[in-house]
Design brief:
about 625 residues, alpha+beta, Ubiquitin-like (UB roll), 4-stranded antiparallel sheet, 17 helices, transmembrane, membrane, YoaR-like_PG-bd, Glycopeptide_resist_protein
């Protein structure tokens, strides 16, 4: 019967082949007795007794030992072949780019492969010819990150479980693992594409007043980044031009879907107002406000999605929301008895915008039942008394005063007072940038400003808001001497003796602004005050610097004014003329007795002409 031999013990559970050997009776020189041979399992055979011829047959033990010996020989042979095939991490006979990696450890295989790549460096670095559509170009492999990942390639070569037979006989070639920077490759291929390509035109629905305007979609024609990368990786090492396909990509929203959105949503949306009801009353949302807030956004794939922009809706409704909302009021601070005092704010009620947009979108396609219910929720002030108390506003760190003439009855003085009142009590949080234009908004007649002299096209003319530059200079100096960061300011074209040279600023809506940043860890309060002949701005916070002072350079490049005669009339404002000059001012900031900052400010003043309202003497 067949017997599977394992020698003295079973082999370990490794991947060496198991050899099966069957024990058989070996033939003898003389024929056996038929009577005996008819019963091969008889006692004589089993006992090893001599046969009728007198010559004993080989005992079963001998046959087993011979079989075992043969098995050992076979196993030794197979084991030797297996040991040869399995030497190292990489199976023998494995090559990559012609480099023999078989029988090596991973580290040795990596070194051998790198050496082969060094030998092929010139070929690998050579520009790659690519054909895209009808155009051909050359790409620098290094510029797009084309390279061979040595470690990944060696790992692929060592992963030989699927090649167990090849470990014993034969050989195999392993393709190198090629990497490429997909975005950089895509950018280079687009250069080759040139005007063959076309960017995707996404569907769009916009508004002109309350009329929807349509942009129909068009597909893009361009290389697909991932597909291009796969083609380049596969063809780089072949030494032949690589064909990169141009792919047409259609937007997710079709022209038919655009027409459907216009017919079923856009046009019905602005056909009539929508009533917004709350527990505090109701407000009508007119078609104009609906058109400003109904947006059709398109994502990367070109899918057009309608949504109501609640922020735009709030802006479009303006003061109408005051009928149903009670806005929260921030805590404020004022100076009382020479110390800052907190005035608590109060909570309010505002529309819950989280559901309003979806609710409004649901009723816009309807011709009747155009009503939505708005939910009012508590709204806390952004700046609470507790937060304000923790900002470190405790002492005056700087103050600056400028003087004016004409008393409080003049239009110019009134403009100075108006802007000073608007800014008074402003709190600037740590890291926040303050914009004077942003804080006051437009300074026109509706805001209480009057006509007063302003510089326009190099001469003084009446203009609404004249005099606000004096307040701008005052607040600029207050922040300057507080050591705060100057973000934006612009000195006047001409120097006026009521201002410090260089350290002054004009302002003009909306083009010229004054900005500073609170670059401290504390909050700050802007406190303003005025008299009949002066305006003062003080900054309250926590004092950081020992001192902030200005050092001036001598004036240079002095120019003298020329005389200009103007036609007399109400728009003509005479001027005595002022010399022009260039000067530097250095802000010197000290802390712990040492100069820690020295900042240079420079400006060139023009000579202000001497304007005479009258005819030139003959």
């Amino acid at each position: 019967m067949p017997v599977t031999l394992y020698g003295d013990k079973r082999p370990p559970a490794d991947d060496r082949p198991t050899v099966q050997v069957t024990a058989v009776d070996w033939p003898v020189d003389e024929p056996t007795d038929p009577a005996t041979s008819a019963n091969p399992a008889g006692p004589a055979t089993l006992a090893g007794a001599p046969g009728p011829t007198g010559r004993g047959r080989r005992p079963r033990r001998t046959r087993l030992l011979l079989a075992a010996g043969l098995t050992t020989a076979v196993l030794a042979s197979v084991g030797g072949v297996s040991a040869w095939a399995y030497a190292g991490d990489v199976p023998r006979g494995t090559t990559v780019l012609g480099a023999e990696l078989g029988g090596r450890s991973r580290a040795d295989a990596a070194r051998e492969l790198r050496a082969e790549l060094d030998r092929r460096n010139a070929a690998l670095a050579a520009p790659l010819t690519v054909r895209v559509g009808e155009r051909e170009g050359r790409i620098d492999p290094a510029a797009v990150g084309l390279s061979i990942d040595v470690d990944a390639t060696v790992a692929a070569a060592a992963a030989a479980e699927a090649h167990a037979v090849q470990r014993l006989v034969g050989s195999r070639q392993v393709e190198p693992v090629v990497t490429v920077d997909v975005p950089r490759l895509d950018a280079e291929l687009k250069k080759v594409v040139g005007d063959q390509g076309r960017a995707m035109t996404k569907a769009a629905i916009t508004w002109k007043g309350t009329t929807p305007k349509v942009t129909y979609p068009k597909p893009s024609v361009a290389p697909d980044p991932e597909r291009s990368a796969a083609v380049i990786r596969a063809g780089w090492l072949a030494g032949q031009p690589v064909d990169v396909p141009l792919v047409e990509s259609h937007p997710a929203t079709t022209a038919a879907e655009v027409d459907r959105l216009v017919a079923e949503l856009a046009r019905p949306a602005v056909a009539a107002p929508v009533r917004l009801s709350t527990e505090r009353g109701s407000v009508s949302i007119p078609p104009q406000a609906i058109a400003k807030s109904l947006r059709f956004t398109s994502e990367k794939a070109g899918k057009l999605t309608p949504q109501v922009d609640v922020k735009r809706l709030r802006t479009a409704l303006g003061d109408d929301l005051a009928k149903v909302e009670a806005p929260p009021k921030d805590a404020t601070m004022k100076i009382a008895g020479g110390k800052p005092k907190i005035v608590p704010g109060r909570p309010g009620q505002q529309l819950d915008t989280s559901t309003l947009g979806a609710a409004l979108l649901a009723v816009l396609p309807k011709t009747d039942g155009r009503e939505v219910t708005g939910v009012l929720k508590p709204a806390d002030p952004e700046l609470t008394a507790e937060k304000l108390a923790g900002l470190g506003i405790k002492e005056r760190v700087s103050t600056f005063t400028t003087r004016f003439t004409g008393g409080l009855s003049s239009a110019r003085s009134q403009n100075i007072v108006t802007i000073a009142k608007d800014v008074d009590g402003t709190v600037v949080l740590p890291g926040e940038t303050f914009s004077l234009n942003g804080h006051t908004g437009e300074r026109g007649y509706a805001q209480g400003y009057r006509d007063a002299p302003v510089i326009l096209d190099g001469k003084l003319v009446p203009g609404v808001g004249g005099g606000t530059s004096q307040f701008t200079t005052t607040i600029f100096n207050a922040t300057y001497y507080a050591g705060l960061e100057d973000v934006e300011h612009k000195p006047h074209s001409y120097w006026f003796s009521r201002y410090p040279a260089v350290i002054e600023s004009t302002i003009f809506w909306p083009n010229l602004d004054f900005k500073f940043r609170n670059n401290t860890e504390y909050g700050l309060l802007i406190d303003t005050s005025y008299t009949s002949s002066s305006v003062t701005v003080s900054i309250w916070s926590t004092k950081i610097w020992d001192s902030v002072k200005t050092e001036y350079s001598p004036r240079r490049n002095i120019t003298t004014p020329k005389t200009i005669y103007l036609e007399p009339g109400p728009t003509c404002i005479p001027a005595n003329g002022i010399n022009g000059f260039t000067q530097d001012a250095y802000r010197v900031i000290k802390k712990d007795g040492k100069v820690v900052k020295r900042e240079k400010f420079s400006w060139r003043y023009d000579a202000e002409p001497r304007y005479i309202c009258g005819s030139r003497p003959s």
